[in-house]
Design goal:
Structural class: alpha/beta
Number of strands: 7
Helix content: 40-55%
Oligomer: single chain
Mean pLDDT: 93
Largest sheet: 5 strands, parallel
Distance between the termini: 10 Å
Strand content: 5-15%
Radius of gyration: 17 Å
Number of helices: 9
Shape: globular
CATH superfamily: P-loop containing nucleotide triphosphate hydrolases
CATH class: Alpha Beta
Strand order of the largest sheet: 2-5-1-6-7
Order of helices and strands: EHEHHEEHHEEHHHEH
CATH topology: Rossmann fold
């Protein structure tokens, strides 16, 4: 069974994924793997440079700050970037899932699980969320960006209310002391 883990920026997906790794589960982190593909696959790099210019890469690495400033100001550019990267990520997910086919549960972590169509690989979806004020504070501290920049990123993602309706289970990380209990409850439902 493949479980999709999704949620808006700052919701706590990475924390939940780390907890699952600690329990021995395999997690495919789409953000991490997409970054790797953007940095290592020549065809993808060429397309990104064509779209964003030579400033798209510095010292062979994707210039995330430059790209972020553009895509969160121009939603159409985000769609174009995703059209370059998502097909390669989908191919990698298939290869990854085949490597671990004997595992009872596999997890795919993706902020854009629904938006990118990756939910089609998921038998169930776990939405990791938190109140917006907590998410904003987390991202401002983590990324060193302004409240307005965080809000721009939040507005570029599917609303949490829509994700809640589509998800099979919602895990709220607003009270961190309850997260392990909620995660164990979710896993019990799967086994």
């Amino acid at each position: 069974m493949i479980i999709g883990i999704t949620g808006g920026i700052g919701g706590g997906k990475s924390t939940v994924s780390e907890m699952l790794r600690g329990k021995g589960y395999q997690i495919y982190d789409t953000d991490k793997e997409a970054r790797k593909l953007q940095n290592e696959v020549p065809g993808i790099k060429e397309q990104i440079i064509k779209l964003f210019g030579d400033e798209a890469y510095t010292q062979g690495e994707l210039n995330r700050k430059h790209i972020s400033e553009i895509v969160f100001a121009e939603p159409e550019m985000l769609k174009k970037l995703n059209a370059i990267v998502h097909p390669a990520v989908e191919k990698e997910i298939t290869l990854w899932a085949n490597r671990f086919e004997k595992q009872e549960l596999l997890f795919i972590e993706s902020a854009l699980l629904y938006e990118s169509g990756l939910d089609k690989y998921s038998d169930k979806v776990l939405l990791v969320t938190s109140p917006e004020y907590i998410r904003i504070d987390r991202v401002m501290k983590r990324d060193g960006i302004s409240r307005e920049q965080v809000l721009a990123r939040i507005s570029s993602q599917m609303p949490e209310s829509e994700k809640i309706i589509r998800a099979d289970f919602v895990l709220d990380t607003g009270d961190s002391s309850r997260v392990p209990w909620q995660l164990d409850e979710f896993l019990q439902q799967l086994i």
